[in-house]
What does this fold into?
Amino acid sequence: MMTDASFSSVLSDTQRQKQNARPDRDFYRQPRLVQHVDERFRTRLTELYRERLRPGDDVLDLMSSWVSHLPEERRLGRVVGHGLNEDELAANDRLDRYVVQDLNKTQRLPLEPDAFDAVLCAVSVQYLQYPESVFAEVARVLRPGGQVIVSFSNRMFAEKAIRAWREKGTGRGRLRLVAQYLEATGAFASPETIHENPHVPPTQRFLGGAPDPFYAVCARVAADDAA
Ligand SMILES: C[S@@+](CC[C@H](N)C(=O)[O-])C[C@H]1O[C@@H](n2cnc3c(N)ncnc32)[C@H](O)[C@@H]1O
It folds into this structure.
């Protein structure tokens, strides 16, 4: 069920479907203390956070785990984590506190309005069945002028990704989809998209294939919301 926060629909009911319709909490019951993307991607994401997060920023890491990819040297304000597996979140030493909540069951975040300068969502947006409603909540908890940074690659637990994500197929299509989620809230001004898929000759590729492409969508709460 979507909440009644203000937003328009981007996805049809069919596009929200997952191949594995069992509860997400069951799927994430076992902690996965692993990295979900390669080192190049992770380094690029940390660099993006270094560029965009200011010292003292209060940060929400949405759909987090035991890692947040934050620059080690950056002294932030309060860092709150959110995810589905408590053991993973408890192992994340960047978090001051965390909340466990299934966003496909309840989108309303148990967090105060205007509480954060930045909301991050790393390599997880493909699992949201009601992203319009979730990003309306993100807008609610952001301070005026606050930013959201959504990053992803081409990896996923396919059985848990929504149909719209699987059918988009390309990075560009998925960037557009995430931008539409943000636009649907009416709160974010012109999302910026980042697409980096450097060509690496096959002879230089490490075992296991091509490097993970890097995609991100960044946006700030529109100035009108600051009124
Ligand atoms: C691929 S992991 C990414 C974790 C972390 N952000 C990272 O960069 O390694 C996907 C995360 O999405 C979260 N997640 C998946 N489905 C969710 C749901 N229905 N509600 C809340 N969180 C969910 C899980 O907790 C899981 O840790």
In short: Helices lie at 24-27, 39-52, 86-90, 131-141, 163-168, 171-184.
